[in-house]
């Protein structure tokens, strides 16, 4: 059964867990043997760390640009781009023969978009969105021209509010309604015509079906309007559900509906925070996160339209979870560093806990 690949990709995996083939035994090689691609989000700040750069090059066939291509960071001031990190990642990928995923064109949170862009919309009335859409076209043209090797783009990120199932309130939604999603995909289809175009969201196997149902209805409407969506990105931050109720039956039904729509699936941001595990022992924490992740992957990878697994950090030490700005409420109560990735804070593979 295809889902058996889950044992090899559990975050407590040893193993060590398409662009050019990676070394035998690497996570990418394990994935490729099962018709999958494997990669990790990478921050440009770590590219000068030779051991980490070597780990990424050995274990992955794909990288995702963690923050460097988010519009907020790429163009913090109007017409002034801070693109050295993004260009460094693009160069790294080229030299290491890695595919690159671009994250992301539009993030439907005002605080996650450039402040100058959101402020510009304050004086615009609904239906009068041309100043905003002009900047969307300009930005997409820059992305397509400057990063032509990107094979997959998260075109719209987190459009839905998971608490109520509605399109999240934002400047984009206020001015254009849901059709800002259509426009974003059509723009990127023009400016990056060879790239896979992905709708990306925080969905996983939470007990509540509200978010899943809202996402299904959104995708149905987009496809009915011939919006060029190629794939669904499922973030899969599993720590949100570790030790809490989850809905495996509902998750399988959700995946069946996505498959029936003809969309591919990418697990775009896989990790499993151990903040809900009271035990301080790192080995036992790793065993529990591994088992939980394996269960999720065994179920999810049963669907042949799942094509790729991307971890949101390959190692604990470089993880966003352990950076100073990570919210206190998402940290462990005992103050210990979070463990949620295949490699530890010294870039050592974690002990194998699976078959």
Report what the structure shows.
The chain is of the alpha/beta class and 355 residues long. The chain has a single domain (2-330), classed as TIM Barrel. Helices cover 35% and strands 14% of the residues. The chain contains twelve helices and eight strands. It has helices at residues 6-9, 27-32, 50-59, 71-74, 84-96, 115-120, 130-146, 171-176, 179-191, 210-224, 248-260, 282-300, and strands at residues 37-42, 62-65, 99-107, 152-157, 196-201, 231-234, 264-270, 306-311. It has an eight-stranded parallel barrel. Helix 7 packs parallel to helix 9. It is globular and about 55 Å long. Mean pLDDT is 92; it is low at 1-9 and 11-20.
How are the SSEs ordered, and which strands pair?
Layout: H1 6-9, H2 27-32, E1 37-42, H3 50-59, E2 62-65, H4 71-74, H5 84-96, E3 99-107, H6 115-120, H7 130-146, E4 152-157, H8 171-176, H9 179-191, E5 196-201, H10 210-224, E6 231-234, H11 248-260, E7 264-270, H12 282-300, E8 306-311
Parallel strand pairs: 1-2, 1-8, 2-3, 3-4, 4-5, 5-6, 6-7, 7-8
Helix pairs in contact: 7-9
Query: Total number of β-strand segments?
Result: 8
User: Hey, roughly how much beta strand do the residues contain?
Assistant: 5-15%
Instruction: Please identify, by name, the CATH architecture.
Output: Alpha-Beta Barrel
The number of helical segments is: 12
Concise overview:
The protein has 12 helices and 8 strands. The protein has 355 residues and is of the alpha/beta class. The protein has a single domain (2-330), classed as TIM Barrel (Alpha-Beta Barrel).
């Amino acid at each position: 059964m295809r889902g058996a690949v889950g044992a090899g990709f559990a975050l407590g995996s040893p193993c060590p867990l398409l662009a050019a083939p990676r070394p035998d035994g690497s996570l990418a090689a394990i994935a490729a043997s099962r018709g999958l691609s494997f990669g990790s989000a990478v921050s440009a700040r770590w590219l000068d760390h030779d051991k980490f750069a070597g780990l990424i090059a050995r274990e992955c066939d794909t990288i995702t640009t963690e923050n460097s291509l988010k519009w907020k960071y790429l163009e913090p001031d109007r017409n002034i781009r801070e693109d050295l990190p993004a260009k460094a990642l693009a160069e790294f990928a080229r030299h290491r023969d890695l595919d690159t995923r671009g994250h992301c064109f539009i993030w439907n949170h005002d605080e996650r978009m450039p402040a100058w862009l959101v402020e510009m919309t304050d004086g615009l009335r609904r239906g009068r969105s041309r100043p905003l859409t002009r900047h969307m076209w300009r930005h997409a043209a820059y992305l397509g021209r400057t990063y032509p090797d990107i094979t997959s783009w998260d075109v719209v990120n987190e459009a839905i509010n998971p608490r109520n199932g509605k399109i999240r309130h934002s400047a984009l939604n206020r001015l254009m309604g849901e059709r800002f999603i259509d426009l974003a995909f059509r723009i990127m289809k023009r400016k990056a015509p060879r790239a896979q175009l992905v709708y990306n969201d925080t969905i996983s196997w939470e007990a509540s079906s509200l978010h899943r149902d809202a996402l299904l209805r959104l995708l149905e409407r987009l496809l009915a309007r011939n919006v060029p969506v190629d794939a669904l990105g499922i973030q899969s931050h599993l720590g949100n559900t570790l030790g809490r109720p989850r809905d495996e039956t509902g998750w399988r039904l959700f995946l069946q509906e996505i498959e029936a729509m003809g969309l591919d699936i990418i697990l775009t941001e896989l990790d499993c925070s151990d903040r809900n595990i009271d035990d301080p022992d790192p080995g036992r924490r790793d065993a529990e996160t591994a088992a939980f992740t394996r269960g999720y992957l065994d179920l999810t990878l049963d669907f042949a339209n799942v094509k790729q697994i991307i971890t949101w950090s390959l190692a604990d030490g470089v993880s966003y979870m352990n950076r100073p700005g990570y919210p206190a409420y998402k940290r462990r109560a005992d103050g210990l560093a979070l463990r949620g990735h295949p490699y530890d804070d010294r870039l050592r593979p974690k002990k194998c806990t699976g078959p």
